[in-house]
Amino acid sequence: MKHVFTKKNRALLSELVRTDFKLRYQNSILGYSWSLLRPLLLFLILYLVFAKFLKFGADIPHYPIYLLLGIVLWNFFAEMTTQSLGSIVARGDLIRKIRIPRWIIVLSSSVSALINLGLNLIVVAIFMVFNHVSLMETAPLLLLTIVQIYVLALGMSLFLSAAFVKYRDITYIWEVGIQGFFYLTPILYSISRIKDPVLLKMLFLNPMAQAIQDARYALVTHETVTVNNVLHNSIFRLLPYILTIVVLIIGVLYFRRESKYFGENI
Fold first, then answer.
1. Model pTM?
2. Nearest 10 degrees: CA dihedral of 38, 41, 47, 52?
3. Is the dihedral of CA 163, 165, 169, 172 positive or negative?
4. Tens-digit pLDDT profile for residues 2-40
5. Measured on CA atoms in the order 251, 252, 257, 258, is the torsion positive or negative?
6. How far is CA 6 from its chain centroid?
7. Which of 29, 48, 80, 229 is the most buried (most CB within 10 A)?
8. Pick from 212, 243, 249, 245: which is nearest to 77 by CA?
């Protein structure tokens, strides 16, 4: 680990993150404000449609915060994987010109997503104050949930970015896949609406479903249904976490294998 995060690598990572932010918001009138406005606008649309018109969340305390937190965490996962997907190809000229660790390019995209997450969580905190949501003793557990989502997204990012170098169709596949993944994650709807116990257990094998519900339990309301309420076997409760580690391992191994050929395939 000491040899991985050398002073040179840290400086390169910092420069890549700064460049990524500049390029992302280049020629944009609102610039960095979009990192806050995007989740807020999405929250407003979904809240009006699902809470006001379809009456979702009537049985959930502090539903606006419950929904906003889910959107912010999901956007973190989606942004990290989507931005990382084409990161190696986008830095093709850099890879061909100088010898740099390939993984640091993917890591720079993940750091950008982490910065946006931090800004969005400040907005969540402000909404909590205005909605009189008390800070609970379980709030520090939110950090563990963020770490889990980061690990899951990093594994996916490493795999997708390496696969995209060889197969450009990955972009379209992931666009469809992440949409399906979104609806398999209880962001808009309450898990209490799912009456089939088998379907409910299968839903919680999705690490993002487990992570978002845990985050809501830690920060918004203890009435949130979590993996502990649904999977009563202690081994089954560990499955979402095990799947997260498995995704990271697969991503690291695949990226390491394919990175040898990036220069000739880009």
1. 0.87
2. -170
3. positive
4. 456 577 777 777 777 777 766 666 655 555 666 667 777
5. positive
6. 27
7. 80
8. 212
